[in-house]
């Protein structure tokens, strides 16, 4: 059993899509074991996406992530990291497979509705960024 950090991004919370996205996770066998709606500051968004700070889209990405509330959540299940990324679909919705969250809901490569951790090491760090051990049962 594995855990991964998921974020429902501002483009999706703005369009009231949290429930539809959560249904995709649950249908795939992922259990939402922690969840909260928060509004990131620019500093927090910048720290969370620090790995991308040299990329040309970093500023735009941080401004977008701080532009409206996000829903941060921990998903649990067998191979949760890979399974979540499968349900999310490719970063660019134009490349995403049918039935994936990004294919159905994303606006663009930047406003792509969801984030998911990409490896066990990043999942551990990203879960601890938003949740204390007491919030995870
Ligand atoms: P995430 O990390 O959000 O789960 P990902 O792992 O599929 O997405 P990354 O390469 O880690 O993609 O990029 C992080 C985020 O940066 C993307 O989800 C997207 O919101 C944004 N991004 C990536 N590439 C571009 C781009 N070319 N233009 C604008 N924004 C981009
Ligand atoms: Mg990534």
UniProtKB/TrEMBL annotation:
Domain Nucleoside diphosphate kinase-like: residue ranges: 1-137
SUPFAM superfamilies for the chain: Nucleoside diphosphate kinase, NDK
EC numbers on record: 2.7.4.6
Annotated keywords: ATP-binding, Cytoplasm, Kinase, Magnesium, Metal-binding, Nucleotide metabolism, Nucleotide-binding, Phosphoprotein, Transferase
Active site annotation, chain numbering: 115 (pros-phosphohistidine intermediate)
Reactions accelerated catalytically: a 2'-deoxyribonucleoside 5'-diphosphate + ATP = a 2'-deoxyribonucleoside 5'-triphosphate + ADP; a ribonucleoside 5'-diphosphate + ATP = a ribonucleoside 5'-triphosphate + ADP
Cofactor(s) needed by this chain: Mg(2+)
SMART domains: NDK
Pfam families: NDK (PF00334)
Molecular function via GO: ATP binding; metal ion binding; nucleoside diphosphate kinase activity
Gene3D superfamilies hit by this protein: Nucleoside diphosphate kinase-like domain (3.30.70.141)
Main localization category: cytoplasm
Cited function: Major role in the synthesis of nucleoside triphosphates other than ATP. The ATP gamma phosphate is transferred to the NDP beta phosphate via a ping-pong mechanism, using a phosphorylated active-site intermediate.
The protein's assembly and partners: Homotetramer.
Listed name of the protein: Nucleoside diphosphate kinase
Lineage: Bacteria, Pseudomonadati, Pseudomonadota, Alphaproteobacteria, Rhodobacterales
Name of the gene: ndk
């Amino acid at each position: 059993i594995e855990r991964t950090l998921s974020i429902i991004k501002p483009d999706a919370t703005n369009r009231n899509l949290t429930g539809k996205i959560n249904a995709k996770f649950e249908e795939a066998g992922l259990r939402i074991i922690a969840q909260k709606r928060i509004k990131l500051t620019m500093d927090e968004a910048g720290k969370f996406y620090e790995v991308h700070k040299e990329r040309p889209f970093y500023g735009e990405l941080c401004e977008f992530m701080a532009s409206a509330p996000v829903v941060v959540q921990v998903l649990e299940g067998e191979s949760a990291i890979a399974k979540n990324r499968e349900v999310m679909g490719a970063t660019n919705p134009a490349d995403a497979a049918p039935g994936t969250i990004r294919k159905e809901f994303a606006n663009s490569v930047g406003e792509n509705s969801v984030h998911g951790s990409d490896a066990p090491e990043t999942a551990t760090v990203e879960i601890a960024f938003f949740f204390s051990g007491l919030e995870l049962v």
